[in-house]
Amino acid sequence: MTTAAAGHSAPAAASADQGVGPLLRAWRERRRVSQLELALRADSSARHISFVETGRSRPSEEMVLRLAEHLDVPVRERNALLLAAGYAPHYPETPLDSPQLDTLREGMERLIQGYEPYPALVVDAMYHVVAANRGVVMLMDGVAEHLLQPPLNVMRLTLHPEGLAPRIRNLREWRGHLLAQMERQIGLYRSEPLRELYEEVAAYPVPEADAGDEPAEPVPYFALPMQIEHEGRVLSFISSISTFNTPMDVTVAELAIETLLPADPATVKYLHSLMS
């Protein structure tokens, strides 16, 4: 889910009260798309795109949605574009505990439970844990009680000195991966709470490497693993993140399912032995 970190400013750094034009231009520039290219994608003209961006022409509701789709604008920000253009939001934001989302919640629960004994969880845009299976619970051994109070936050759980961090063998590499992931999210969503979370977890102390430690033998993984100690063993996992295709609701659009795939046969064998 930077401190505008890698120099990213929000696409809507242009204020919404300036109208939809500057917001669309900011998204187009973020996507590195020319006015002509966007016009061809949206079945319009470069002249019309220019007029929209400068405020000389007010786009229709349909055009705002079409441009947002071709610029891959997040669903929440599409609503912001519509409001800036003088239209009502198009996408609802249904509370996750709403009866309307019962089927979705049940489906996610079945999915992550079916992934056991491997860890799997569902998080929202702020990295709050929405659901988790027993594989995740197993990894929580030794985590400080205050980090386990709801809402659980996966970034705090992972990087806090009283969380998983002391047991992560390759903490510096894994921490860098997670912070970079958050930077990308901040570049995509205009979220001050997400920025504050980034600043908090980025400030957590990182233990200095022991000068007497021998460097670990490199292992040819196909992706960066998280290597974590558990009851005297080192388990290795590769993270995979899935989102919903073409969501029509802000809440659903911001959910992500993370699965931790065992990265070596020893981890597979150990996890299956726990569940048996």
TrEMBL record:
PROSITE patterns: HTH_CROC1 (PS50943). Pfam families: HTH_3, MLTR_LBD. CDD domains: HTH_XRE (cd00093). It comes from the Bacteria. Residues 24-78 form the HTH cro/C1-type domain. InterPro entries: Cro/C1-type_HTH, Lambda_DNA-bd_dom_sf, MLTR_LBD. Transmembrane segments: none annotated. PANTHER family: BLL4672 PROTEIN-RELATED (PTHR35010), BLL5781 PROTEIN (PTHR35010:SF4). This is Helix-turn-helix transcriptional regulator. It comes from Streptomyces spinosisporus.
